[in-house]
Write a structure and sequence with these properties.
Layout: H1 10-43, E1 47-48, E2 50-53, E3 56-58, E4 65-67, E5 70-74, H2 75-81, E6 85-89, E7 94-99, E8 102-107, E9 112-114, E10 117-121, H3 122-128, E11 132-136, E12 141-145
Parallel strand pairs: 2-12
Antiparallel strand pairs: 1-4, 2-3, 4-5, 5-10, 6-7, 7-8, 9-10, 11-12
């Protein structure tokens, strides 16, 4: 083996060049995978949808949305639109939604946070309160029929 100017044998330099080439290929592959994943994330962005309670459109801030196949809306506004009261337990990170004598606990972890507000799955909340919840695919909307009034 002949030595190069730096004193490294040619065989070692050959291994070094092959290693650097493999590292370059790995970096390129990681960059491509990262690009593909970020494109997938953009494609999976929230879809803003409409919500109707008893036939009347309800405006939410932040907007109701579909994420990962579930429709979400702000907890307090949705509960109040269904004639319910909300009590928040900060220590337990839990909301208790009551309509008449029926109460439903909703954990913060059950929902998503958007603009510092807790959005909860509409079907989970609505059906727990006795409402009928339906997805209107053509209108890109959630339609909720309130349950009958509870006797006090």
């Amino acid at each position: 083996m002949k030595d190069l100017a730096g004193g490294f044998p040619i065989a070692i330099m050959g291994l070094w060049h092959r290693y650097v080439g493999e590292v370059t290929i790995m970096r390129t592959m990681l960059i491509l995978v990262g690009c593909l994943l970020s494109v997938g994330m953009v494609a999976a962005a929230d879809e803003i949808v409409s919500v109707y309670v008893d036939g009347k459109q309800v405006a939410f801030k932040p907007d109701a949305r579909v994420r990962d196949g579930k429709a979400y809306a702000p907890l307090r506004e949705t509960s109040e639109a269904l004639g319910s009261e909300v009590q928040w337990n900060a220590q337990a990170q839990l909301a208790v939604i009551c309509r008449g004598s029926a109460c439903v606990p909703i954990k913060k972890s059950d929902g998503i946070i958007v603009n510092n507000q807790l959005l909860v799955p509409l079907r989970v909340l609505g059906e727990a309160l006795g409402a009928k919840v339906a997805w209107d695919a053509a209108g890109r909307a959630v339609r909720i029929a309130s349950p009958p009034k509870f006797a006090h």
